[in-house]
Amino acid sequence: MITDPDSWWHRFKSIGAIAVFHVDLTAHQGREVEALTWLDGEERSRWERFQSPTAQRRYVLCRAALRAILGRQLGCPNESLGFEAAKHGKPFALVNGLPASISFNVSHSGNHGLVAVAPRGRLGVDVEERAPRRNLENLIEGVFSPHEKAELESLDGCQQLHKFFRFWTIKEALVKAHGKGLSMKVAELEIPEDMRRGAAKSICQFAQIPETTWCLEDMGTREFAAAIAYEVSP
Ligand SMILES: CC(C)(COP(=O)(O)OP(=O)(O)OC[C@H]1O[C@@H](n2cnc3c(N)ncnc32)[C@H](O)[C@@H]1OP(=O)(O)O)[C@@H](O)C(=O)NCCC(=O)NCCS
After folding, report:
1. Is residue 99 packed enough to be buried (19+ CB in 10 Å), middle (13-18) or exposed (0-12)?
2. pTM for this prediction
């Protein structure tokens, strides 16, 4: 098992059996060099294919933290861990080549990564640094429902940007929990009214995913917007 007294991840939040870790993605050569040694051959090839050193850094620091967190939770050595992707790209873990009984999801933006882990149930996590976006209007048009758009369009400047990222991360966490990525009609996944108005969490269902009840939870801080979505057991 990987043990590192100077680890670059720490527990950020606990929600029942779900643990959410924050991963520090600031530039740090020593960490990057070490993290790369924890990756397997396939992951290293992927790391090599990233076009920019920043993208490489985010990937390697997040993936190594994910390995350490899963290895500890599953009680297995790093060499036994592997990853595969489901049909729409959502990764799952393998131990000695067999699917591991654990759920996780990863997100990274700027200097911040989040890793959420749970013993069971689908979950998704999203983090976004609140950097101004040039094409905000187009994104609002393409991704949000009429109610969500009306609320965003009633604001401007920092307030609009703040709410945009709050809504965006909540939706993206849900899309990532479900795992079907870009094939989902995201504008139709309307954030419940109580949450749009500021509630920190909400239990809800969506016509597109009728079989599942979800809990959506805002995890934003001053530094970043973030949200988690997870299945509620019947
Ligand atoms: C991959 C995707 C799910 C998220 O991408 P992103 O926001 O750029 O990136 P994030 O940093 O939040 O997440 C990337 C991580 O999600 C995981 N991931 C990849 N595909 C995934 C999928 N289909 N479902 C859930 N997680 C996925 C991976 O672990 C990946 O990290 P890694 O490559 O380092 O292993 C994206 O391609 C997507 O489909 N987005 C949803 C569509 C959309 O329209 N969103 C608009 C706002 S709702």
Report:
1. exposed
2. 0.95
